[in-house]
């Protein structure tokens, strides 16, 4: 067997594989002998079929199969031994005069070679790293939400702003009869609101669905109809009030603090506000980190220049597609995926050059941390270490889960690397302004 390579340019090469009879014949002969021992052919006892008949019946199929196996194995070994970084997979070149009846065979494969380039996270462009803070307004709103959530309902006779009203919407023609509880603040427009304010238990209000609530989603929810039906609904209907309640906010006292965080963990409104701020900013950190990853990715793609074997990759996409694909469709697919491919190469180079390796122990620790978080949601704050190890072992027995966790550990390593090495500018910002600036 002989394998040679000819580089057509820096990004493309052709590998030629020459397979001779002596490379494959011993294996073919062995398989045919095994077939002879096991073949069931009418007119012959098992194990006594003439070898010539076995060759005639199975020889060509076995030959083709063994040559293809040998070809793939030798090609893969060659790429590994030569340490060739290829994109996609080798593509066999078409040979119109190929003849399996010959004894020696020549095969050719096109290769797309990975480009050589330099990459640095110390980019020319300064990348913003957002430090999202919870301002006083956000903390105030969260306090109100908590007080509302843990507050109590007080029954009353007459509807006022901010009340909760239970009742039934009815329209016989549209077969609507839905009992629900709505918030007065969801009602849209002064005219509609005026019909509710001052109304009492037992009153029947005549309403129109058009512009009754702030959103069609609310209309669908309160009438008990499908979203599509609510969008074009313009009918008259009645609403009979069965109950009026006022929601009194919970007091900011020790009883509430203990419900929220456990006995004695928070003992004052000041500590509660501090805890709300910390919890909110921990959640914001995830969004900040994700945005940093996005911005670093975009900047590295923008500032790291290299060519790709474009024509080869388009051909590879077309050939390897599960469904039939035209050359034009393959071109579109390549253009859609080119940016992702570029960053895969950049990221791979950063990982290799900076020795950012994922260790099994790191995957295990991340798994245990996730398990602890899940158990804490169900009140198990101090799980036994052996129990954690046992659960982690079951999780890590799933290879798909290991792969997913490995990617998450690597993402964290890259994030830490960017925070340390990239050209960053820290910007403190409220969540509201972060949303405006990033998702404008």
Automatic annotation (TrEMBL):
Matching Pfam families: Trigger_N
Q: Which domain of life is it from?
A: Bacteria
Its EC number is 5.2.1.8
What are the entry keywords? Isomerase
A GO term for molecular function? peptidyl-prolyl cis-trans isomerase activity
All residue ranges annotated as the Trigger factor ribosome-binding bacterial domain in the record: 1-145
The Gene Ontology biological process terms listed for this entry are: 'de novo' cotranslational protein folding; protein transport; protein unfolding
Task: State what protein this is by name.
Answer: Trigger factor
Q: Which gene encodes it?
A: tig
């Amino acid at each position: 067997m002989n394998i040679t390579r000819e580089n057509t340019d820096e990004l493309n090469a052709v590998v030629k594989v020459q397979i001779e009879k002596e490379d494959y014949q011993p294996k073919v002969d062995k398989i045919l002998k095994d077939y002879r021992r096991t073949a069931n052919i009418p007119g012959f006892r098992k194990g006594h079929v003439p070898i010539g008949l076995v060759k005639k019946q199975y020889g060509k199929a076995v030959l083709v199969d063994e040559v293809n196996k040998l070809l793939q194995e030798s090609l893969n070994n060659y790429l590994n031994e030569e340490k060739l970084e290829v994109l996609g997979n080798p593509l066999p070149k078409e040979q119109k005069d190929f003849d399996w009846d010959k004894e020696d065979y020549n095969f050719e494969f096109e290769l797309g070679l990975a480009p050589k380039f330099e990459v640095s996270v110390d980019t020319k462009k300064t990348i913003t790293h957002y430090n999202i803070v919870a301002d006083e307004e956000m903390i105030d709103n969260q306090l109100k939400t908590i007080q509302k959530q843990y507050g109590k309902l007080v029954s009353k006779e007459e509807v006022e702003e901010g009340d909760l009203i239970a009742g039934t919407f009815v329209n016989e023609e549209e077969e609507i009869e839905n009992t629900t509880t709505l918030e007065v603040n969801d009602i849209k427009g002064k005219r509609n609101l005026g019909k509710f304010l001052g109304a009492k238990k037992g009153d029947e209000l005549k309403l129109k669905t058009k512009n009754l609530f702030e959103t069609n989603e609310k209309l669908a929810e309160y009438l008990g109809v499908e979203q599509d039906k609510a969008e074009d609904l313009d009918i008259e209907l009645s609403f009979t009030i069965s109950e009026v309640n006022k929601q009194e906010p919970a007091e900011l006292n020790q009883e509430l603090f203990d419900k929220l965080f456990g006995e004695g963990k928070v003992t004052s409104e000041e500590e509660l506000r501090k805890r709300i701020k910390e919890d909110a900013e921990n959640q914001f950190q995830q969004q900040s980190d994700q945005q940093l990853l996005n911005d670093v990715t975009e900047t590295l793609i923008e500032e790291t220049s290299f060519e790709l074997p474009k024509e080869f990759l388009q051909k590879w996409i077309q050939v390897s597609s599960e469904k039939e694909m035209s050359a034009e469709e393959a071109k579109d697919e390549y253009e859609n995926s080119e940016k992702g491919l570029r960053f895969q190469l950049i990221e791979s180079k950063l990982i290799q050059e900076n020795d950012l390796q994922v260790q099994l122990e790191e995957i295990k620790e991340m798994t245990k941390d996730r398990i602890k978080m899940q158990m804490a949601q169900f009140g198990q704050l101090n799980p036994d270490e052996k129990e954690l190890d046992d659960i982690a072992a079951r999780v890590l027995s799933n290879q798909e889960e290991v792969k997913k966790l490995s990617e998450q550990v690597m993402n964290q390593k890259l994030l830490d690397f960017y925070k340390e090495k990239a050209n960053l500018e820290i910007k403190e910002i409220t969540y509201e302004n972060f949303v405006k600036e990033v998702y404008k």
